Amino acid sequence: MKRIPSRELLDDDAGTAAEVTRSLADLRLLNHYFGGVATTAYMVERIARASQKTDFTLLEVGAGSGDAVESVRNRMQKKGIGLELTLLDRCASHMAAGNGNGVNHVVGDALSLPFGNGSFDIVSCGLFVHHLTPEEVTVFANETLRCARVALIINDLVRDPVPLAVAYAGRLIYQSRITCNDAPASVRQAYTTEEMRAMVAGNGAGRVEVTRHYFYRMGAIVWKNELWQQGEARSNV
């Protein structure tokens, strides 16, 4: 299946406030029932196990409403792993108002993060990287690894005809016309696991682990420089 770059309406905030709100609700549903939350939780737990740490600062890039990563935080709390969250999105209207629930909100550019080197233990993103060109993915990986002390984690779709068919079928239940456009567009421009591995390996990256998850989700952990060696050794103890 050839990758086809496609315009996504939510990226451009192309809709009324009500349509955007309903589209974010659709995303919340998809993340909870089609592998989004579980995939990120798996990677956070993997990093915790490998590093033998129980508390992390985590920056979520392209966070939207932040519901998915907050659900991950709640799951991790039950396993004794603490996450201090910062959400970044280029559209303030996509994020919940204020700084409630102990979460910081920042409006900024994912390709030029407004943070210093090593500002967070983990930099994470969910359903974001497929919006970028291959060249931009490489820039994004380098920029996020600059801000990360331990690892970058990427949660995204796998390009395949099966999730594309499901994305079209989902138009029967989506709440927003934005989602009706964006769900199939997301699958069409998603990457394969092989493509993802090739794009994120490079400057600042140590070992790259790419795994497949429920319903055509991929999870990529990009360890910072040589930190993966220590993590690999510890995870095998």
- Tally of domains: 1
Percent range for helical residues?
Answer: 40-55%
CATH architecture: 3-Layer(aba) Sandwich
Strand order of the largest sheet: 3-2-1-4-5-7-6
What's the number of extended β-strand segments? 7
User: In CATH, what is the homologous superfamily?
Assistant: Vaccinia Virus protein VP39
Proportion of residues in extended strands: 15-25%
Structural class: alpha/beta
- Give me the CATH fold name: Rossmann fold
Rg, alpha carbons = 17 Å
Total helical elements: 8
- Return the string of H and E elements: HHEHEEEHEHHHEEH
Alpha-carbon distance between the two ends: 40 Å
Overall residue-averaged pLDDT value? 92
Low-pLDDT runs: none
> Which outline best applies?
globular
**Largest beta-sheet characterization:** 7 strands, mixed
Can you tell me the CATH class?
A: Alpha Beta
TL;DR?
With 237 residues, the chain is an alpha/beta fold.
